[in-house]
## 1
Amino acid sequence: MKLTTKGRYGLAVVVTLNKNKGKTFSLISISESLGLSKLYLEQILAVLKSHQIVVSIKGPSGGYSIKTGTDLSVYDVLSVLEPSLAAHETTGKTQKSLGLILDEQVYQPLSQVVIQKLTSIKIDDLSSLLLEEPMYYI
């Protein structure tokens, strides 16, 4: 499965903001922290905000933060940034054509497995892995 940069970067933004729940980060600080273009990041954050995954606060101490009280999964984030992930196309034919057979036997089951897996991976779990710093003993 190949994700666009929008999906990969959006997921990175959400995990980063989730790691720091309750804190607000400016667009510039997120951009510098993740090494992403400010303009591209702004587009991603606009989509995430419109789907109520992140919230923005205006003003001198404003910025972006993860919406509190949500139990987000990877699928929740990727489905808004990767429309093809949530889309399901069918051939529209009722006869048992090759397209319909492949759709029923391959594409639909594959899509369901991918969605189940992405739904089972929670953003909180990814954030907690990010918080774990390795311990080195000398």
Note: Residues 5-131 form a domain with the Arc Repressor Mutant, subunit A fold (CATH 1.10.10.10).
## 2
Amino acid sequence: MSFDWLKDPISEDAPCGPDLEATDDAPFVDYYFEAESRMPERYFTPGIKGPDDDFMPGVSFDPATIKHATEKKTITELLKKSRDLRLVSLLARMMVLAARLQDFADAVTAMADLLETFPDRVHPTDQSDRRSAIDELGNNAIVAIPLQHINIAGAAEVTYRKYLAATGQSEPRQGEVGLNPGTMTSELSSPGNSKAVEAAHAALNQTASALKRIKSACMRLDNPFTPTLGPTEKAIADIQRLIAESRTDLKPWSDDSPSAEAEDDEVGSHASNTSPIDEADSAKPAATAPTPAAEPLAGAIPNRAAALQALNTIEAFMATHEPSSPSLLLITQARLLVGKPLVEAIETLLPEHANKTKITLGEGTGFVLYMDRLKMLAGEAGGRAQSLESEDAGAPPEITSRVNIAPVLTSIESFFRSKEPASPIPVLLFRARTLLDKDFTSTVSDLIPPANNE
């Protein structure tokens, strides 16, 4: 649903109409505060043990509980009386909770339009109330996590949340055990799902662009500020990277995309009354810090030789420039496991349980292969492996800073998940990526458990 009409003034004297909260407008007060009270505190409620030690499984928010058509109609009627960021923010959250991705994108775009068209007149004019309404678009529990649960492949029911569970990046919940990441990426590239995937990608692009416009508009206000939108920007970037793994023609949105540059020009034409000081502030790097979507997208890894070469390149860079990084240790371990059998990976990563490893051949048959036998078979199979010398690794990736590392690691992860799904390398590299930017205190907290947990 387009909200272009929101850019039209309600009247010449009061282009944004009255502040419905300040005037104690009954329809606004009755609806708005009740609707806000229905916002969930968390998207997923973990399971608990009942009074009889019965386990009550966790529960995810049900999008069907949001009557999206009714909510949209009510908010639209109120917006016709008053141009109010609180109402638009509420609408955006309602739509993403209802798993209505395009409606969510339209609501976020409407907020960008209002801030650009009526920067100092749109309600609420109180700086604290205005910032709160805008910051809600970056709410992790109500916006970012629901985005992860939205289906992006039509009837295939592919979500980023399921992908995280399938790849071991998040603990699987009930109904998420046994998911296959390869199946998900295949569904994303399936011609039958192309329209749904392209629509989801376009809506995410629209949202990312609108969020950037919102940040830029906030920095041009008389009292400029940078809204907290990071969790939502990251969720969008993560989902778009997943799409790009299967659809290389659908690139993640970035600050320097042609559409973003065109929007910047358009915003500049609307902001001709901006003072030189405001323009200088909005030009500062901190004003529009690059979002996660702006990371360079690394090229696909074609074969194991290219993966090994990329790991060697990253390892050499980090050993030279960031020898204290815990990511370096994980990248080195990943390199050492390239081409190695499963039993070696288990001995390396699960040393306390390695001797208990076994493969049973049918429940109740008694047929079993224990670790000693598995190691012998791994050695036998290894002797038949072909050399990688015949594989063309191509040119090594260019690593000149930490910014270049994460996209290359993501490409290596994608290669092993697709070509060698039993490999632990993607798990190691994902963890390496999460540690790349952490400082010493955060790193120690991650690596050393508290005394009472030892």
Note: The two ends are 54 Å apart (CA to CA).
